[in-house]
């Protein structure tokens, strides 16, 4: 396993920010890659949500263990029948999402949130992202994430989809 950071101290890890105020709701969070193992398809990271900052709409394809270290994690899961289920996790709470979890919106509470994710992706795919209409899914793998991180770029799946999603109809 490649270890990037041996510490969970939010003051000493390297944070990378993901911000998009053009999207509704506002995407605003930071992450820090802790470590990964490509042969076993594992990746661990810290996520730090700004107050009421959201992640891009997605679902976890990887089995994901979540521990809330500070603040809160809010989720709005889209159920198979189209309804939504609200979940709020507070400091010290733990959750385990199975492979192929439900699509959801995820954000920090009023004071933000600090989480640790430990993911195992047997197929290599960790997330499936969606556009603003919750359609047109595209996958993001552990290898994609690690390669972007190694190039000192913020892994941003929307950069990959912008050509066909936003401008495809103009070509």
| Overall pLDDT level | 86
Summarize the helix and strand pattern as letters: EEEEEEEEEEEHH
Span of the ends, CA to CA: 43 Å
The major sheet is characterized as: 8 strands, antiparallel
Q: Tell me the Rg in angstroms.
A: 15 Å
Share in β-strands: over 45%
The low-confidence runs, each spanning 5 or more residues with pLDDT under 50, are: 157-171
Gross morphology is globular
Structural class: mainly beta
Number of strands: 11
Number of helices: 2
Estimated helix fraction? 10-25%
Task: Summarize it.
This protein is mostly beta strands. It contains two helices and eleven strands; from the N terminus they run βββββββββββαα.
Q: Would you kindly provide a written description of the structure presented here, covering whatever features stand out?
A:
Strand 6 and strand 7 form a beta hairpin. The C terminus is likely disordered. The radius of gyration is 15 Å and the shape is globular. The strands form two sheets. Strands 1, 2, 3, 4, 6, 7, 8 and 9 form an eight-stranded antiparallel β-sheet that branches. A three-stranded antiparallel β-sheet has the order 5-10-11. The longest helix has 9 residues. Helices cover 11% and strands 48% of the residues. The chain has two helices and eleven strands; from the N terminus they run βββββββββββαα. With 171 residues, it is mainly β.
